[in-house]
Amino acid sequence: MNFQITSEQEYQAAYNKSVDQPEEFWNDIASNFHWREKWHTTLKWNFETPDVRWFDGAKLNITENCLDRHLEQRGNKIALIWEPNDPKERALRYTYRELYQNVNKMANILKNMGVKKGDRVCIYLPMIPELSFTVLACARIGAIHSVVFAGFSANSVADRINDSQCTVVVTSDGLNRGAKQIPVKSVVDEALEHCPSVEKVLVVDRLGWPVNIHTGRDFWYHEELKTVSDQCEPTIVEAEDPLFILYTSGSTGKPKGVVHSTAGYMVYAGYSFANVFQYKESDIYWCTADIGWITGHTYILYGPLLQGATSVMFEGVPTYPDPGRFWQVIDKHSVNIFYTAPTAIRSLMASGVDHVLAYSLHTLKTLGSVGEPINEEAWHWYHTHVGKGKCPVVDTWWQTETGGIMISALSGISELKPAHAGLPLPGIQPILVDGEGNEIQGNDVEGYLCIKFPWPSMIRTTYGDHERCRINYFATYKNLYFTGDGARREANGMYRIIGRVDDVINVSGHRFGTAEIENAINQNKKVIESAVIGYPHDIKGQGIYAYVILGDLEANNNNQTRDEIIESVVEHIGRIAKPDKIQFVSGLPKTRSGKIMRRILRKVAEGELSSLGDTSTLLDPTIVDEIIAGRLT
Ligand code: WT7
Question: Which CATH class is domain 1-61+236-260+404-502?
């Protein structure tokens, strides 16, 4: 790894070079990877169309970089440690050679099922080793993976499959989640009633459950495994060929398929992993995210494997069998680098510090946080009780669309400040702008966070709808990528992320559009209209507050109707998007042109009743009093 920064001076030098000579900067980093053919053009870009191309002319396969090239030196090194949901079940360990063989077998199975380069494969699996095999197997054969988090409902799965016209789905009989076992294959069966593009389904046996097998369409993984070889030649792709699609929510009702390229994503995943976590050859690294989200893609699989690291993959939840599980697993596997989400920290904080103090945690060197702003209290608890005051906490700001960490301290190198993401990684050029898109210069300022220069792992398009990508990210401010976040730049140049400034809410680090949840609520026949907002929630960061107008006034304040509305959300999106509070109202605060004043709803939900502003211009000002009177606390 010639690109690992080891001091603050090196950081500054690298940062300056990345701004002054970006192509040379990235050429040096990219030369650490294995290419079948080198690029002829490092970067071509235009943020207006947008069109961004990195390492044009290069040919490669990312799995050769994640697996093959490690075989000689690290063939017997553990690549993946899989920790099951139930601590009594045996953990599984895969060396680089074993992972390589399993990926090749899965790749051959997919090929036998007809998957070809460029085809889309939907992966709807829990956190079991086969999920990792499948993701990498797609990459091995040049197929585009679209992982859908296994907590999404049949409707959501169907929408995602149809949007990208997947031909194959890989799934399991069911999944473990703490003390519960949850069906998975039956969700796929329901989704596939509406997915004509899907030809074949591969089913992994996790729970030993009987499932419906549609002859000719569905195949058991363990049966197919018997007939395939553990060798599979990698399919060589072009730098800009898409590696994967990952759906994420925006401010409109329909989630969009964020498309990442192969070469740029690879270079940035490896580079950012090595630098932020300051990974060293013998480190055991654990990221607790689910591979259904971008964090799992980049920092459980690609980033660590690109560096030949040992990565822990955890099937379970932080609270099972008790709230000491994370700490027990850290001791069990001697974890050195631990990367989790503020919501998990806050929920474990609430269960009391004794669960942490019961474990040694002496192997820890670095702690990471991701997904939402980490409040100071949680930061200190994490630093003091988990890190014993000796582990840097890196607060990593990034997004599904950025592919990798953008603003963060580098562990042990950068200055730390609780609740501050810190400085941009070399290669990343953030700026703050005002409402008109004018750059806000200097420090101790606040504005909309944008990025003014391309980086290798940035979003390339939204699947099937390039215009949507342009409008969402590149049209708000000319020649800038707009993140959707507001931020402060402190006196020392460090960034502090404030949160979303669009109609996106972040619940336990999961992103939802308010319109998306409203659509789901409105599916309920009793509902005439609804408005959803995020409100501060002690554990989840933001909770979901729904204001609902019912047609049948009898149903007002009726718990059964509340349950039915929650059921609509579970059915249309998934259990992760359940509203925390539902308030029935007879109307919503609207402007004379009919626009819902969410700002007022947010203030009421937050209890900030004295700062509602002028409500006299509303269509019906009296509605605000009704909403205040019925406020759920
Ligand atoms: C949004 C992106 C990429 C990781 C998982 C979430 C918020 C993410 C931080 C942080 C403050 C953060 C932002 C961002 N966010 N990390 N360290 N501090 N806010 O990915 O679902 O694409 O959501 O999460 O608001 O825009 P995502």
Answer: mainly beta
**Is the beta carbon of 379 within 6 A of some atom in ligand 1?**
no
Q: Can you give the pLDDT at residue 250?
A: 87
pLDDT tens column, 360-390? 999 999 999 999 999 999 999 999 999 999 9
- Residue 171 and residue 184 in contact, taking contact as beta carbons nearer than 8 Å: yes
User: Mean of the pLDDT values across residues 532-543?
Assistant: 96
Instruction: State if residue 542 touches ligand 1 by the CB under 6 angstroms criterion.
Output: no
Query: 5: Cβ below 6 Å to ligand 1?
Result: no
The residue contributing the CA closest to ligand 1 atom 17 is 397
Phi, psi angle pair for 277, to nearest 5°:
-90, -5
Q: Out of 349-358, 439-448, 556-565, which region has the weakest mean confidence (pLDDT)?
A: 556-565
Interval between CA 424 and ligand 1 midpoint (Å): 15
pLDDT at position 251: 82
Q: CA geometry: angle at 441 spanning 438 and 446, to 5°? A: 80
In which residue ranges of the chain is CATH 3.40.50.980 found? 88-231, 277-395
pLDDT at 2: 81
What does the alpha-carbon distance between residue 3 and residue 164 come to, in Å, rounded to a whole number? 36
| Residue 516 CB–ligand 1 contact under 6 Å | no
The Cα 371–Cα 375 span in angstroms is 12
pLDDT of 523 reads 94
What is the number of the ligand 1 atom nearest to the C-alpha of 511? 21
CB neighbour class for 48 (10 Å; exposed up to 12, middle 13-18, buried from 19): exposed
- For ligand 1, atom 20, name the residue with the nearest CA: 399
Query: Average of pLDDT values for 115-134?
Result: 98
Residue from 398, 423, 472, 503 to probe ligand 1 pocket by mutation (most atoms less than 8 Å from CB): 398
% of the chain with per-residue pLDDT over 90: 94
Pocket residue to mutate for ligand 1, from 497, 510, 516, 540, most atoms within 8 A of Cβ = 497
Convert the pLDDT of each residue in 545-588 to its tens digit: 999 999 987 777 688 999 999 999 999 999 999 999 999 999 99
Topology annotation, domain 88-231: Rossmann fold (3.40.50)
pLDDT tier for residue 478 given thresholds of 50, 70 and 90 = very high
Distance from residue 374's CA to the centre of ligand 1 (Å): 11
CA of 204 from ligand 1 middle (Å) equals 31
Q: What is the pLDDT of residues 97-123, one digit of tens each?
A: 999 999 999 999 999 999 999 999 999
CATH number belonging to the domain at 506-629, selected among 3.30.300.30, 3.30.830.10, 1.10.10.10, 3.50.7.10: 3.30.300.30
Q: What's the average model confidence in pLDDT over 312-316?
A: 98
Q: How far is it, in rounded angstroms, from Cα 348 to Cα 434?
A: 38
Rounded Cα distance, 436 and 139, in Å = 41
For residue 255, cis peptide bond before it (omega within 30 degrees of 0): no
Exposed / middle / buried, residue 345 (Cβ in 10 Å: 0-12, 13-18, 19+): buried
Residues of the chain with CATH 3.30.300.30: 506-629
277-395 maps to CATH 3.40.50.980: yes
Distance from Cα 562 to the centre of ligand 1, integer Å:
30
